[in-house]
Amino acid sequence: MLPYRPCVGIVVFNHDSLAFIGRRIDGPEHVDVTHAWQMPQGGIDAGEEPWPAALRELHEETNIRSVERLGEIAEWLSYDIPADLLGQAWNGRYCGQTQKWFAVRFTGAESEIDIAQPGGTHQAEFSAWRWEPLENIPALVVPFKHPVYERVVAEFGKFAEASA
Predict the structure, then answer these.
(1) What is the per-residue pLDDT across 32-74, written as a single tens digit (0 to 9) for each?
(2) CB of 37 closer than 8 Å to CB of 115
(3) Domain that holds residue 26
């Protein structure tokens, strides 16, 4: 049995308590335009702790550095990729992802966000982005990620309400 890929996920709230979502440029799991959105997420490097990995991934995908930490989900959340994608995603090395999720408040100016040239030299992963009510986001991601995203909404909805 294949292992899970250790990852982080980040919910970025703006001052209006909306969450950042990006439209993925590619990936074998993104088969339609409705479900091509996701929040920043990515792999944890060998020897890296989850919180620094979250900050690194956020910068590499969005160029965002100006954040304050709001919280994290205590346990790791996992999802399996569909069987027909097993050989395509992550070079066939993983059955899915296990993710440590964090919530942050964006404290910078929107001009800091740069998905075209994020993190200086990192390759762009998003073709578009927007602020969206957190509770809307599960319906915009690929269906096999719905349970994880629904749990993220349940855990971090309090941060959307806190300054709304």
Answers:
(1) 667 889 999 999 999 999 999 999 999 999 999 999 999 999 9
(2) no
(3) 4-162
Distances (CA, A) of 32 to 29, 65, 110, 144: 9, 31, 28, 14
Amino acid identity of 2?
L
Q: Report the alpha-carbon distance of residue 151 to residue 157 in Å, rounded.
A: 10
Mean pLDDT over 111-132 rounds to 89
Quote the pTM value. Answer: 0.92
Q: Which residue has the tokens 């990192």?
A: 122
* CATH number where 107 lies: 3.90.79.10
Between CA 1 and CA 94 the distance in angstroms is 9
| Contacting residues for 21 by C-beta, under 8 A, at least 6 apart | 37, 38, 39, 129, 130, 131, 132, 137, 140
- Residue by residue, DSSP assigns 33-54 as STT-EE-SEEEPPTT--HHHHH
Q: Which residue from 74, 71, 52 is spatially nearest to 12, judged by alpha carbons?
A: 71
